[in-house]
Amino acid sequence: MGVSHISNRSQQSQKWSRRGLLGVLGAVPAAVALTGCSSSAGASEGTAKSDTSAKATATKKPTVSVTPADGTKKADFTSPVEITVTDGTLASVKVTGNDGSTLDGSLNAAKTKWTSARNPYSGTKYTVTATPEGAAAQTATFTTKSPGETFVGYFTPEADSTSGVGMPVSINFTHAVKDRAAVQKAITVTAEPAVEVVGHWFSDTRLDFRPETYWAAGTKITLSLRLKDVEGQDGVYGVQQKDVTFHIGREQISTVDLSTKQMVVKRDGATYATYPVSGGDSDHTTWSGIMVISERFKQTRMESSTVGLGDEYDISDVPHAQRLTTSGTFVHGNYWASTSVFGHENTSHGCVGLHDAKGANDSSVAGYKFYESSMLGDVVIVKNSGEKTVEASNGLNGWNLSWADWKAGSAV
């Protein structure tokens, strides 16, 4: 019985021991689970903090800045426009002037900076529209200041005109040009059919363009002026921004031989007419060389005092006068000399004269016929005059320079 009692107590003790063991064993998973929960909660908190920081970074809005700054009223126009973005990249940029012009430009490799390909124009209000990637467009405006002093170039021939094959493109500037290279680079002359055209500076105010030989008949010439805001000299800027076209008509080249006192007119290579003429006498010899008709008058006044010859003559109605030099050489009609002079004597004060009639309306005389067959830009060549070759700058007469000498006068 005692043994049996002990045995029962022993069994009970064993049962409690198992329960206690089970209880302890049951507590272990619970502790592990808490420990696990504790670790998991700490990780989530760290992740949450990281996510919050990332979201804060991700939600930071891109900021666009413009140079010149937004709202500038007298911005410089001698530097490119720059647009930068922080906390993002640029998807597109548009810069538009109130004159309808636009500024093209390019982004850097990182797409954080846009730079205009050229400078903005002076005296222009610009609107900038910059769109960052994934964000709304941002706008800014600025206005460039006006230049203090300006210059323009007056060009020959006139826009849309038709001229002879000897007509150069001649530009006279209203201010002396100091930076010839900058100005010449802003002017281009192109031809169809294509031919090399080169500029030559005769002075600080005159720039002419021509090909190596006369233009081909039928050529279309385009003069492109990109002078706006080009600094010709300190503080003096160009204003022209335009394209103009001219056309070359038929080829007419007239050769005056003052030893024979004859002028042979050739049209497109074939003899068109021959006229007896009278050139300058031994005291007033006619310039020799290649000359181009630069002005035409059905009638005009000619006064000797304007060419340094005192009061030797003053004729109010010289018929059919066509200018060959700035200094006063013309080929013109002459009604006051005997018809026997033409083709036999050189009696003029330096001009080339053809028999004509007072009033300039007699279509049967040489002066009338030659005038009617001519146009601005036609070539007149004088030889055997007893005088030296005319200066290339005296009129539109650059053809008297060799091609090498002509190119040497270019600034580019």
From TrEMBL:
User: Which UniProt keywords are listed?
Assistant: Acyltransferase, Cell shape, Cell wall biogenesis/degradation, Peptidoglycan synthesis, Transferase
- Location of the L,D-TPase catalytic domain: 252-383
Span list, region Disordered: 38-75
Q: Which domain of life is it from?
A: Bacteria
**Active-site residues from the entry:** 332, 351
According to its UniProt record, in which pathway does this protein act? Answer: Cell wall biogenesis; peptidoglycan biosynthesis
KW Cell wall biogenesis/degradation (keyword) present: yes
Q: Which InterPro entries match?
A: Big_10, LD-transpeptidase, LD_TPept_cat_dom, TAT_signal, Transpep_catalytic_dom
Q: Spell out the Low complexity composition-biased ranges.
A: 47-68
Query: Which SUPFAM superfamilies would you find in this protein's record?
Result: L,D-transpeptidase catalytic domain-like (SSF141523)
Q: Which PANTHER family match?
A: L,D-TRANSPEPTIDASE, L,D-TRANSPEPTIDASE YCIB-RELATED
Name of this protein: Ig-like domain-containing protein
